[in-house]
Write a structure and sequence with these properties.
The structure holds two protein chains of two kinds.
Chain A (H helix, E strand, L loop, with lengths): L11 E5 L2 E3 L11 E3 L1 H16 L4 E7 L5 H8 L5 E5 L9 H13 L5 E5 L9 H10 L2 E14 L3 E8 L2 E8 L2 E5 L12 H5 L6 E4 L12 H4 L2 E8 L8 E3 L3 H13 L5
Helix pairs in contact in A: 3-4
Chain B lengths: L1 E6 L11 H9 L4 E7 L13 E5 L9 H15 L3 E5 L2 H14 L3 E5 L1 E5 L2 E8 L4 E7 L5 E5 L15 E5 L10 E7 L11 E5 L10 H7 L3 E4 L1 H5 L20 E5 L5 H4 L7 E6 L5 H4 L3 E4 L2 H14 L6
Parallel strand pairs in B: 1-2, 1-4, 2-3, 3-10, 4-9, 5-9, 12-13, 12-14, 14-15, 15-16
Antiparallel strand pairs in B: 6-7, 7-8
Helix pairs in contact in B: 2-3, 4-8
Classes of the chains: A alpha/beta, B alpha/beta.
Amino acid sequence: MDERSDTPMPMNLICTVKFVPEPDSLTAGPHQLILNPDDACALAFALALKSRDPGIGVEVVSLGPLSVRPHMEDLLRLAVDRGTLIWDPGLKNSDAYVTSRVLSRYIAERPCDCVLTGSHSLDGGSAQVPVQIAESLGLDQMLGVIRIDPDRFDPTRAVFQAVDETGVTTWEMALPGVLSLTRESGYKLPYPTLTDLRREVSEELNILTSRDLGFSADEVGPAGSLTRVSASSPVTYGEKDPEIVGLDDNGITQVVDFLKKKGVGR
Amino acid sequence: MKKTCILQDTETPEKTTDLLAAAVRMYGRDGFESHVVLVNAPPATVTGRCHHVIQMTESLAAEDDPRALAEILEILHQTYGFDSILIPATTLGKMIAPRLAWRLKTGLATGVTDITVRDGQLEITRPAGLGTMLETILQEGQGPVIMTIRINAFEYTQKQAVPTRISPYSRPVTVRSTLTRLGVEQNIEPRDIRDFEVLVAGGGGAIRCFPALEPLADALNGAVAASRKLVDLGIAKRNIQVGQSGKTVTPKVYLALGIHGSMQHLAGLRGAASILAVNTSSHAPICRVSDLVVQGDACEFIEKLMGKLMHHPHKNT
C-alpha cells in the first residue's frame, strides 16, 4: 500500500466483488450471474460515502472469468472510479487460497485505506478470502459488519457494528483494514442514471492476468491450490410421506396427539 | 499416534468436546492424542475428555482477538506438530482459521459437516451453494489439516475418561489486532435455540403473528426460531435464524409455521428428529420432509392449537 503523508488525503476504498449464480438457478442451468449480495452491500456503502465526499476514490476488483465483464462494466456506470478484472485460463479452478493471494497482491500495489468485502459468498460461503487478504496485508479485519458510521470513518480508524452469535457489537478498528459486510446491513446500490446507462465504459475496465501480477503458472489454478473439490452433489433430504390434516378440530387434535407421542409439552 | 488440536468454542465452551468426534472420524477412537486450547474457560470444561489441555494465560491476549489467537495456534503447531487443527465455525473461528491456514501455508476446509476416510485419504464434506450442494474437499500438500467445524454437526460421546495433562501457555504474542469493543447489544434470549428439544419456527406465513409464537413455544417448553426471511425483514433476531446462514438445530420436534422450506433452510434442519409443518400449500418443500402436515394458515393454527392446549393441557415432563 502507498506511504501515508501527514496531509489529509481523500480516502481510497477498494471493494472486492464476486459474481455468483443467482440462487434460483443453482440447481438448474444455465446459471444467471448476480453480484454477490454481501459484496453489493460493501460497494453500496463505498458509493454512499463517495456521494457525500466525491473526492473519495472507489475501486472495484474481481477475480473471475471474462464472461463477467458486462457486469463489471455495469459497476463502472455507478460512479466507481476504477474497475479491474483479473483473469486468465490458468486461474480456472483456483481455490480460496489462490484467490486470496492474487487479490491481495493486487491490492498491495494500490492506494487503499480500507478494503470493503462481503462476509460470505452465495456459492461458497466460506468467508476465507477476506480474512486471508487481511492476513496477507497484515491488516485487521471483521466479518459480519452491518453498519459503518460514516462520521467516524477516516484514514486512521473506522467505527462500525458487527453481528455475531452473541449480539451486535460496536467496534473501533485502525485503518487501513478490511471490513466485511453482510446483507443485513441493508446498503443498497444506487440506480445508474440514463446517461450513465448509455455511457461506453468498455475501455475503462482494466483486465489483468495472473502473470501481470507476477505469478507463475504453478502458483495459480489447481497447481497452486491447497484444497481441491473432488465431488459435488445436490443435497438430498430423506423425503417422508406425511399425513396431511386440516385446521379443523380433528386436525388440531391430531397435532396434539402427535406432540404427546413425541413427549412434548409442559 | 496422530495429534489433533482443538480450539475452544469461546461462545459455548461445552460444545468444544464435540469436535473430538471429528477427530474420531479421522483417526478412530484410539488413534489420536487430543490437545485442547482453552482461551476463556477453566480446564474442568474438558478435563477427563482430552489428553492435553493448553490453558492460555489470562490477559495474554484478548479472547476475541483473531490475530493473536492465530499466532498462538501457529506457535503451538510448531511445538507439537499437529496433524489436524479443528476450530469451531463460530464468527470468531471463521476469522482465526483462514489466518492460521495462511500462516501455515496449508489448505482450509470451512463449515465442515462430515468427514470420511477412503483409501487413507480424508474426504471432508461441507455444504455449498446456499446449502443446496455438498462438496467433498481434499487437502493437497503437507498439512496440517485445518477445518472449521459447523456447530452441532458432530456429537461426541465418551466411552471412558482419559487422564488429562494441563499446561499453561504464556508466551507473549507479537501481533495483536487494534479492534476495540465500544459497546455490546446483547441478545435478549437467555438460551441458545440449539439447546432446545422443541422449536417453534416462523417463516413468511407467520409474519403477521410472529409474536404469538412465543406463548406457543412456552406452552410446549420450547423456543422460538425463524427463517431467514423474517430475519432479513427485521422481524426476528439473527441469533434465532435456522438454516445455512443461520444455525443448525437438532430438536426432537420442529414446528415449521409458514415456512416454505428452501434448501438453505432445510440445511439447518438435518438433525431434527421430527418436523411438523403448517403451510397453506401441502406442496411446499418443507412438507416433503415433515412427519405431519397441517394444511392451512399458520396464524390460525397457532390460535387453535393454543386454544386446545389451554383447555386440555398435557404433561409429559
